[in-house]
């Protein structure tokens, strides 16, 4: 019985072993299938990773590269695998990567950062990377780096920063006012704007600051039209206008504007050139012309009898005026069509940057032909010693203004111009170069020479006119002598011939008053009284003139009323009108006395 039981147990155990063996075979088959599927999935994953646009690499705790889908220029995947990631990084980047790896392995969390590495050819590549932990049973054993190449965008950013720095260096040191207007608001001004206009930078950049307060009212419409053109993408030529400082002082200027991109938006860059001194010179020149014209006109009136002799001089004066107006128009045309020449040099006065006006000034077509040229070589040899001395002054005082030189063109001709320069310093206060503004003064020089010639001509004409004046005064003296002789003859005739007749008439009562008036006016026959009261500008009527003669003769209003057979009221009304026309109304002036003084 016991033996049979043992056999049964053996049979059961055998059956159980067979069942387990079957289960094991099934598990082994499934494991082989899963392993095959896993290998297929891994191959697909590797193909996907190799075609991935970003660079992917996996490193262990020591930084050893155990997987890489692509490399930088000059290296192969086989060459990089098994090497340490630190071998390709500068010292400062090695410190950064060690810190990143330490944090990822310690925390098991992803980190993002930006850095650069050195290629085999020595060039540098910039990248943005995300370090992702790869866990096994909850423990980080490897780190996957997902790397995006940002070299081109970094180069663009660096170039943009350098370009902005160059602009700010030029603008901050420029003797001209420079501003940027974006969407009707000022978003940048250089120190020259603050210095000349009297507003602080914070006032200029304030959100509610209205830039139109800087512009003289008569130019508001013109500036608005130009801004509208700029908004349509059109270029606007340089234009003369006037600015107003914070204290209300007027500054004459030339405004040059261009459309630019500022902070990724369209904006207007403006360069303002102060031409107050030029306008003052033009005003003085015009004043001299006005004086010349006034002098000639005065002498022409005085010497009307010599008008034919002076005809040639008048024609000559008109020719001079036309020539000077032409000179002024040429000067204005030059300044309106071209901004001033601006150059930037290094500390050795070698040109490193310039504008188109500089090329035009020297007759050079390409900027490359001017860059690297010593600025002294562009000045006439006779002025170079003085230019060196003024350069020392610029270094000492920081700026030099309106120094005249003769500049050389490419063909060897000379151009007179004014130079204003200031130093450029870096953030540490070290001299790194100079910025200069050069104004072509060729037209002004011609105008000055014309003005000198005009003054010389005026002096000659004045002397000639003074000589003719002397002759005229002699003629006038002879006429006065003749007038006195005629007056004496008239008075003699009146006394000898007319007075006896009047004396006989005075014995008749009815004619006594008229005889008195007649004798009164005969005594003053040679005075200017008649001419004065009959003047058309005075406007007296014949009746009012008749009353003036009676009042001047001493007759009262009652006597005048009886003689003319009119009422006293009418006489008083005539007297009031006479006082009004003689402009003595409401004045404490006796009418009879006033008329008697009109001799």
Helical region count?
18
Query: In percent, how helical is the residue content?
Result: 40-55%
Strand percentage, roughly? 15-25%
E-strand count: 15
What distance lies between the first and last C-alpha atoms, to the nearest angstrom? 186 Å
User: For the CA atoms, what is the radius of gyration?
Assistant: 52 Å
| Main sheet: strand order | 2-1-5-4-3
Quaternary organization: single chain
Question: What is the global morphology?
Answer: elongated
Mean pLDDT: 78
Low-confidence stretches: 1-5
- Report the biggest beta sheet as strand number plus sense, adding barrel if it closes: 5 strands, antiparallel
Pairing-aware structural class of the strands and helices? alpha+beta
List the helices and strands and how they pair.
Blueprint: H1 2-50, E1 55-59, E2 65-68, H2 77-80, H3 91-107, E3 111-118, E4 124-136, E5 139-149, H4 151-173, E6 177-182, E7 185-189, H5 191-197, H6 201-205, H7 220-231, E8 239-244, E9 250-262, E10 265-274, H8 276-302, H9 307-337, E11 341-346, E12 351-354, H10 356-362, H11 381-397, E13 399-408, E14 414-425, E15 431-440, H12 442-505, H13 512-523, H14 529-533, H15 542-552, H16 557-564, H17 568-581, H18 591-596
Antiparallel strand pairs: 1-2, 1-5, 3-4, 4-5, 6-7, 6-10, 8-9, 9-10, 11-12, 11-15, 13-14, 14-15
């Amino acid at each position: 019985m016991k033996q049979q039981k043992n056999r049964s147990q053996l049979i059961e155990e055998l059956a159980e072993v067979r069942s387990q063996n079957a289960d094991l075979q099934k598990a082994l088959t499934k494991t082989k299938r899963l392993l095959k599927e896993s290998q297929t999935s891994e191959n697909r994953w590797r193909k996907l990773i190799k075609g991935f646009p970003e660079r992917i690499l996996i490193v262990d705790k020591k930084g050893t590269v155990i997987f890489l889908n692509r490399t930088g220029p000059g290296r192969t995947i086989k060459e990089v695998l098994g090497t340490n990631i630190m071998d390709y990084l500068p010292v400062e980047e090695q410190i950064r990567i060690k810190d990143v790896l330490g944090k990822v392995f310690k925390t098991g969390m992803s980190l993002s950062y930006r850095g650069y590495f050195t290629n085999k050819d020595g060039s540098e590549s910039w990248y943005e990377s995300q370090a992702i932990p790869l866990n096994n049973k909850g423990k980080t054993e490897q780190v996957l780096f997902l790397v995006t190449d940002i070299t081109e965008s970094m180069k663009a950013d660096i170039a943009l920063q350098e370009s902005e720095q160059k602009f700010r260096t030029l603008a901050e040191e420029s003797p001209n006012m420079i501003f940027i207007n974006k969407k009707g608001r000022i978003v940048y001004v250089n120190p020259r704007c603050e210095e000349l206009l009297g507003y602080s930078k914070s006032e200029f950049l304030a959100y509610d600051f209205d830039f139109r307060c800087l512009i003289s009212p008569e130019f508001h419409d013109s500036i608005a039209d130009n801004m509208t053109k700029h908004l349509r993408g059109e270029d606007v030529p340089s234009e003369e206008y006037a600015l107003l400082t914070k204290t209300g002082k007027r500054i004459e200027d030339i405004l040059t504007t261009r459309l630019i991109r500022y902070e990724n938006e369209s904006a207007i860059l403006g360069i303002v050139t102060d031409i107050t001194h030029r306008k003052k010179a033009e005003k003085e020149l015009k004043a001299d012309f006005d004086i010349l014209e006034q002098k000639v006109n005065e002498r022409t009136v005085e010497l009307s009898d010599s008008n034919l002799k002076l005809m040639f001089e008048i024609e000559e004066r008109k020719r001079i005026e036309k020539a000077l107006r032409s000179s002024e128009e040429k000067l204005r045309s030059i300044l309106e069509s071209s901004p001033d020449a601006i150059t930037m040099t290094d500390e050795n006065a070698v040109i490193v940057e310039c504008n188109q006006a500089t090329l035009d000034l020297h007759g050079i077509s390409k900027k490359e032909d001017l860059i690297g040229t010593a600025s002294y070589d562009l000045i006439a040899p006779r002025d170079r010693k003085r230019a060196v001395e003024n350069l020392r002054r610029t270094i000492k005082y920081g700026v030099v203004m309106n120094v005249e030189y003769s500049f050389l063109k490419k063909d060897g001709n000379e151009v007179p111009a004014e130079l204003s320069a200031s130093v450029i310093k870096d953030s540490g206060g070290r001299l790194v170069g100079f910025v200069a503004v050069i104004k072509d003064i060729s037209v002004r020089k011609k105008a000055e020479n014309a003005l000198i010639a005009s003054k010389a001509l005026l002096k000659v004409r004045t002397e000639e006119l003074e000589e003719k004046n002397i002759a005229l005064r002699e003629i006038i003296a002879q006429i006065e002598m003749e007038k006195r002789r005629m007056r004496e003859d008239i008075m003699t005739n009146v006394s000898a011939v007319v007075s006896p007749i009047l004396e006989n008439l005075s014995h008749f009562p009815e004619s006594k008053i008229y005889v008195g008036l007649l004798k009164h006016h005969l005594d003053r026959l040679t005075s200017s009284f008649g001419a004065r009261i009959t003047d058309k500008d005075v406007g007296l009527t014949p009746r009012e003139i008749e009353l003036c003669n009676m009042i001047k003769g001493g007759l009262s209003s009652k006597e005048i009323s009886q003689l003319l057979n009119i009422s006293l009221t009418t006489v008083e009304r005539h007297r009031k009108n006479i006082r009004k026309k003689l402009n003595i109304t409401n004045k404490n002036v006796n009418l009879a006395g006033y008329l008697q003084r009109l001799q």
